[in-house]
Amino acid sequence: MLYEALKDTLLELLQAPAHPPEPPLGSPGSVQVFRASPRYLTLQLIRHFGSMGTALLFELIGWGAIVPVPGGKTVFAVVATLIVGSTLLLMLARYFLIRIDYDMRFYVLTDRSLRIRRGAWTVEESTYTFANVQNITLQQGPLERWLGITHLQVETAGGSTPKGGPDAAEALNHQGRLDGIDPDTATELRDRILRHISDYRDAGLGDEPARTPQASTTGQRSAMLRAIIDELRQIRPASPPSSDRD
Fold first, then answer.
1. CA distance 85 to 78
2. Degrees (nearest 5) of the Cα angle 144, 136, 143?
3. Does residue 176 contact residue 130 with C-beta atoms inside 8 Å?
4. How far apart are the C-alpha atoms of 132 and 113, rounded to whole Å?
5. Over the stretch 184-226, which tens digit does the pLDDT of each residue have?
6. Domain coordinates in residue numbering, the chain
7. How far is Cα 170 from Cα 160, in angstroms, rounded to an integer?
8. CA-CA distance, 125 to 116, in Å (whole number)?
9. Which residues lie below 8 Å from residue 52, measured CB to CB, with a gap of 6+?
């Protein structure tokens, strides 16, 4: 296929990785790799080609206004041919870039972290540890509802800056998005991440054992104080005998 040949050539020239990223921190058996739905590619094509088609239409209408001018039909035909031809070439190139962006998206989940990687020209890779996650939301606009996809957004107290260049939105707001996934998969991932967060925090920071309850600690302190008092009573010197008066 022509696209696959061009894709392999471009990735080789850019030395961009075509395989999923290395799993983030977590148990080896918990690693799962997710991809965006094919309907997310459809969404991107509708957005970009719809805007380009609208711009092309208004441009042709503007040039069509010169038709009443002598020789206007000839000028309009030449200009329309150039505009349509260049737009088609631009749309073809744009399709290739959108398809590359779709193919280079990877979402890797473990029981402790989430890693998102995307891009070919600039490879952006972000990692989010569940200990820092503050909020998880599902986002779905009218087009997403029509196509049957949704976006899962993860917000953290302190995220990592994507590799290969700063992404202003994520670096500033510490937000990561799993774009264009199936609603059922998004709900499952949200619930799974929430369970991992709960398990991780119940275990304590660094997976340390849970602390001793406060009541038990108070009882130990009381017993220690009583033992110290008993020791002091035992080592207290006896009172000196009273002297006889003459």
1. 11
2. 5
3. no
4. 10
5. 999 999 998 888 888 777 766 544 434 434 444 455 666 676 6
6. 11-35+106-208, 37-104
7. 8
8. 6
9. 87, 90, 91, 94
Rounded Cα gap, residues 186 and 172, in angstroms? 24
Tokens of 27: 């148990």
pTM equals 0.68
Average pLDDT of span 112-129: 90
Tell me how far apart the alpha carbons of residues 61 and 54 are, in angstroms, rounded to a whole number: 11
- Report how far residue 34's alpha carbon sits from residue 106's, in angstroms, rounded to the nearest whole number: 6
First to last CA, the chain: 126
Residues 35-80 have pLDDT tens digits of 999 999 999 998 887 776 676 676 666 656 655 655 566 766 776 7
Of the candidates 101, 114, 130, which has an alpha carbon nearest to the alpha carbon of residue 7? 101
The Cα–Cα gap between 133 and 194 comes to: 9
Contact yes or no for 102/41 (Cβ under 8 A):
yes
* Helix or strand holding residue 33 (H, E): strand 32-34
Q: Which two tokens stand for residue 116?
A: 């998102």
Helices (H) and strands (E) in the chain, counts: 7, 7
Query: What's residue 210's pLDDT?
Result: 40
Of how many residues is the chain composed? 246
Block residue for tokens 């190139």: 93
Question: Which of the two residues, 179 and 3, has the higher pLDDT score?
Answer: 179
Sheet with 106-109, side-by-side order of all strands: 32-34, 106-109, 113-118, 124-129
What tokens appear for 80 in the block? 């329309």
CATH 2.40.128 fits 11-35+106-208, yes or no: no
